[in-house]
Amino acid sequence: MSTIELEHGCAQTNVPLVPLICKVKEIIPQTSDVASIRITSLDDTKPYDAKPGQTSMLSVIPYGECMFAVSSQGDDYLEFTVKRVGYVTEQLHALRPGDQVGLRGPYGNWFPYEELKGRDVLFVGGGIGMAPLRSLITYMLDRREDYGRIDLVYSGSTVDDLVYYDDITENWPKIDNMHVHLSVYKGTPEWAGEVCYTAPFLESLGIDAKDRVVVLCGGPSLFKTCFQSLVRLGFAKSDIITTLEMKMKCGIGKCGRCNMGSKYICLDGPVFTMQELEELPGSVH
Ligand code: FES
Questions:
Q1: Is any ligand 1 atom within 6 A of the Cβ of residue 52?
Q2: For ligand 1, is residue 260 a contact (CB within 6 Å)?
Q3: What is the pLDDT of residues 112-127, one digit of tens each?
Q4: Most buried among 99, 155, 219, 225, using CB within 10 Å?
């Protein structure tokens, strides 16, 4: 599909709610309903730098807009990994290279990659929850010597729902001191690995909580069960980090959609420790 041609895009730094008009550089299918969309400026440069965990608003004019975590970035693009779940994401999936798309951001805080230096890090995610995790994983792998052991525990409903399949099955397991643990919830003849829900799979791995930080991202059920498992495994709530970017709307503290008690996810998050979340009324667990 083609979007409406706009002559002028206003930089989001000057007019916060007006998107910068960009274009699609590339679309990489991940699964039957997930695709990674690479966005570049109209002059083929990267629209802006985003820190791992930061979010941006993607819009398909005139259909609407949605907030996504930046899943990775290159010299001339930002990448967003989008699951087709509704009207706007349908339109995003229908885009083709060269089509125009609105972009505003980057919003919110980011994963504490400086504080994690020298630490062992356990990533836990399911399905599309890989998108924000990937931004930090690739950041750390690009600076491998700065970080300790990396474990990734990742699950999908079936093997066909695992995103970044080449990375998780081929590329990342070959990296020094990186360990990838995969499971699916429903076995199929093509899958020779674990068939198990994420939380019991996580508990079965015997991962030591000592000196290890967790970054957790997934749907509500995975989030709740894995959090309980991590506490049982001995992880301190202050060492369990997550992101709530799905609850953001305007991104700039105006719409009130994201507030929890005295905090706004868009201004104070989306990255929080579980200890911080526990202190907020109406938090997610
Ligand atoms: S997303 Fe609108 S106030 Fe936070």
A1: no
A2: no
A3: 999 999 999 999 999 9
A4: 155
